[in-house]
Structures are given as C-alpha cells and as structure tokens.
Amino acid sequence: DSAGSGIIVSEDDNYLYIATNNHVVEGAKTLTVQFCDENTVAAEVKGTSASNDLAVVQVKKDDIEDETKDAIEIAKINDSGDEKVGEPVIAIGNALGYGQSVTCGIISALNREVTAQDGTTGETYANTLTQTDASINPGNSGGALLNVKGEVIGINSSKMGGDYVDGVGFAIPMTTAAPIINELITREKVSEDKAAFLGINGIDVDDS
To answer: Whole-model pTM?
Structure first.
C-alpha cells in the first residue's frame, strides 16, 4: 500500500476529477480517495502521463456522501506563470501518510531541470520544475503548492530530489501541468479493435 495527495481540479455531471502524480497511482490495483472530512470513496485512473509524472483520478459523484460534497470544492488554478523567486508558498498534502498537513516556505528557484525515472519502464525523463523550501515529504506527492491567494501554482512531487535532501522540494508548475491535466480529463479511451497501429519497430543502428 502507498499514500499520496491530490487536487480536485474539475467535475462534470458524473465524475469529480482529481489531479495527482503518476508515481502515486502507477501499479495500483485499487484506489481509494479520502476527502478532508475523512470519508473515503473508491476511485479509478482516468489517464496518466508518465513522462510528466502526472495523472488524473476520477470519482463517481453518486458515490460521494452529501456531507462530503458540502466539505469539498474545486481548487482555483493559477497557470499564468507569474510566480517569482522569494514569493511565499504553502504546500498541502498527506505527509508520511499521517493525514492532511500544511507546510510553508518560499519559491527558491524557477525552471530547475530535474531528471526522474519511470518506475515501470525504467526510462528517465527531464522536467522543468519549481523549487521550494516548503517541507515536501513522501505522501505529499500530488498535493497542491499554493500562493498566498490560495491558488494552485504547482503540484508537489516529493519523489524528486532524494530522501536525504533538506529544504529542496520540487513541484510541477501549473503552466506545464494544467494543459496536460485538461487533456487527460477530456481524452476518451479507445477500444482495442478501433485503436490505430503502426506495423514497424525502431532499433538502434550501429556502425556495422
């Protein structure tokens, strides 16, 4: 079992959509979302982008208790990219799996290139992230990095930066994450009999 965090980003008539990190959900056989009132609901993966370490989880609205619906709301997203180094930020998440907690700090740097590895394929990806000294620990992954207006400006990704580094956390900026999240929400799954297929394989070509 593993635990992470998520951000309620949108809804439609049937589902509530929650953004998180891909590494929070990859390999999961079942998913459960616990809301801020501690009520839990079964969930399923709507879509993932391993190279960006992003995923969207969907929850059936009919499964959510009325008291929970009253306690939650859709996050305000700020993807303008106008955040600045030194700006105060707040990180919210499920640190160490203990439940919701809040830490604060500043934006330490912008546009940091950080390399991460896909846990399933072993492939490495370089992403441009926001660095913060707000405490981001395992379990915070997928949670919100907020500005002082309470707007989401990043998605925390505690997996990046190592276990023994202090005061160096990273978040995927919403300028990157927002369009990918929207695409994952709107993307429809295609059945195998209708899926396109390319009948060639690529190989490495050496001197010989």
So the answer is: 0.84
